[in-house]
Design brief:
The longest helix is centred in the middle third of the chain and has 12 residues. The protein is mainly alpha-helical. The protein contains three helices and two strands.
């Protein structure tokens, strides 16, 4: 299909093409207790996605103070971030035994 003029419109994308209305996607669920939980989002951050993914997964479910202390310990290399998914060429460390794993890193930029 070739569009010859700029005034002609292209067909709609996604599900609307098949007769369904396009809906916005919800990426996170609502918290059971919103007064004691928080959400965070970053855009155009100068950090590696894979390191940030593992860091977020490590602090998921922690309370705020515990998560802050844990990330501070990671920056000081007292504890490590366990790498579960993105483990290709990831070195082994004894600090990962805390999580019953062998591979971990200290992603400073993601922790800050």
């Amino acid at each position: 299909l070739k569009w010859t003029s700029a005034s002609q419109q292209q067909p709609p994308r996604g599900g609307a093409r098949r007769g369904r209305a396009a809906a916005m996607v919800k990426f996170s669920r609502e918290a059971s207790n919103p007064t004691k939980s928080c959400k965070a989002m970053g855009a155009d951050l100068r950090v590696h996605y894979k390191n940030t993914y593992e860091t977020a997964r490590a602090i998921k479910g922690m309370t705020l103070r515990v998560a802050q202390k844990y990330l501070q310990d990671v920056c000081e290399k007292k504890r490590c971030i366990p790498f579960r998914k993105y483990v290709g060429t990831c070195g082994r460390t004894a600090q990962a035994k805390e999580f019953k794993l062998t591979q971990g890193r200290w992603p400073i930029k993601s922790c800050k």
